[in-house]
Design goal:
- The protein is an alpha/beta fold and about 425 residues long.
- It contains 18 helices and 13 strands.
- About 50% of the residues lie in helices and about 15% in strands.
- α4 links the parallel β4 (about 95-100) and β5.
- α5 (about 125-140) packs antiparallel against α6 and α12 packs across α15.
- It is globular.
- It starts with a helix and ends with a helix.
């Protein structure tokens, strides 16, 4: 799905500068986060921004070539005043922080050196929600939304949201959590899901038909704990039940960064294949008949399920997997948290062409009606323009944000300076 973003990077005359500070360099074929970043790059370029992407991360073999996107690349260091010189010279009109951890490190430096730059946070998903669900799952207790308030990471994440002028939220459910549980002013939040091309009739007709697809598939970055847990669940519980009903079926597990413990689950005799990184994720998903995604904790919008819909591949997932994705539209398969229902639904969908075709059509409708970038482009551009024109008043209205910014400058700044001086002596 992520290469659609690459193909749609159309250049317009540049008059403003956006600095993106990334937690890592974008890897669109490794994670949904990498694809999301390309979508944001495209969106800001459409608005007329020239873009510099900076990150303290090491280069990776799988990072996108930013030069091909007409994006400048800059390596930066943590706890180093060289960033102050760099950002002051760049003098960006806006700065986009890729996750709250990056805002913690660099937000105060941006505020100090470029006070008139709009500060935007891309949350990816709510980390406090994901962690609270994970803790409840591992403790075998029922999760309640108030559990998020107990997470230390929530204090950091919410403080970061308050310090920024605008936070991009990918999930409608998470918007509601922030407004109702954490009492965040909705003026600081902006719903911006995946920004996708619509699936045309021609694209749909070129997808492999039911008869040419075989097997089940799971795909997901193994550095992401919900994915690893889902693969364990498949191996230990779901796949043995499913294979009893479909003894010739195979399940192919794809994902970037598989560890040795992941590879040890490879059992071809059981039809359970650990394939590792997919060279072309679209191709392997398009050739599978069903996507299995038994996610038991997590947050945000699931890239693997969006990709399944784009590839015309029905899916079976959980309520957490499908959370906030379909709106009022029917799912492109089945959603259930019961292991027997999950297994039986997968078998039924695998064998019934009519049911499979209807599920496939549901997925196309979800993409075209809920994630078409045409729905969001103009309103988002207007929001950025409005912020630029009304930034002073916007910040006056956000007193808590100013308060947190003040204390961050008083504490984080001097801790960072101390670390920098200490490093000079080493």
């Amino acid at each position: 799905m992520y290469y659609f973003a690459l193909l749609s990077l159309i250049m317009t005359p540049q008059s403003q500068t956006l600095l993106i500070i990334g937690f890592v360099w974008p890897e669109p074929n490794s994670s949904a986060a990498g694809g999301r970043m390309l979508q944001l790059i495209n969106e800001f370029q459409q608005q007329g921004f020239s873009i510099t992407f900076a990150s303290p991360a090491m280069d990776s073999d799988f990072m996108v070539d930013l030069a091909t996107l007409n994006v400048d690349k800059k390596s930066i260091s943590l706890n180093c005043s060289s960033f102050d010189i760099f950002v002051k010279e760049l003098n960006p009109s806006a700065v986009l922080f890729d996750r709250f951890m990056i805002e913690e490190q660099f937000g105060w430096r941006v505020a100090e050196n470029c006070p008139n730059a709009i500060r935007i946070l891309d949350t990816e998903d709510l980390h406090c929600l994901r962690q609270a669900r994970q803790k409840a799952f591992k403790a075998n207790t029922e999760f309640t939304i108030s559990d998020t308030l107990k997470e230390d990471v929530a204090k950091r994440e919410i403080a970061s949201i308050l310090r920024c002028d605008l936070s991009l939220i990918i999930s409608e459910f998470e918007i509601e959590v922030l407004k109702t549980t954490f009492k965040i002013d909705e003026k600081l939040l902006y719903y911006l899901p995946f920004l996708l091309e619509t699936i045309s009739k021609e694209t749909f007709e070129n997808l492999p038909p039911f008869e040419k697809r075989n097997g089940f598939i799971f795909i997901g970055n193994f550095l992401h704990e919900p994915n690893w847990n889902a693969v364990q669940y498949l191996k230990e519980t779901i796949w043995p039940l499913l294979r009893k009903q479909l003894p010739e079926a195979e399940l192919h597990i794809y994902g970037a960064y598989p560890s040795q413990k992941v590879m040890q689950l490879h059992q071809p005799k059981e039809g359970f294949h650990i394939k590792g990184r997919a060279d072309d994720a679209n191709e392997v998903v398009q050739n599978a008949r069903i996507v299995l995604a038994p996610l038991r904790f997590g947050a945000g919008i699931k890239g693997k399920l969006i990709e399944a819909m784009q590839c015309g591949t029905p899916s079976i997932t959980t309520t957490i997997g499908a959370e906030s994705m379909q709106g009022n539209l029917p799912w492109n398969g089945f959603v259930t948290d019961d292991v027997n229902e999950f297994t039986n639904s997968a078998v039924q969908l695998y064998q019934d062409k009519k049911l499979w075709t209807a599920a496939q059509q549901n997925g196309i409708a979800i993409i075209n009606q809920r994630y078409s970038k045409k729905r969001f482009e103009n309103e988002f551009a207007n929001q950025i323009e409005f912020l630029q024109s009304n930034l002073a008043q916007h910040r006056l209205d956000n007193f808590l944000g100013s308060l947190l910014q003040h204390h961050t400058l008083s504490s984080t700044k001097y801790m960072s300076r101390w670390i920098e001086e200490k490093n000079k002596r080493l």
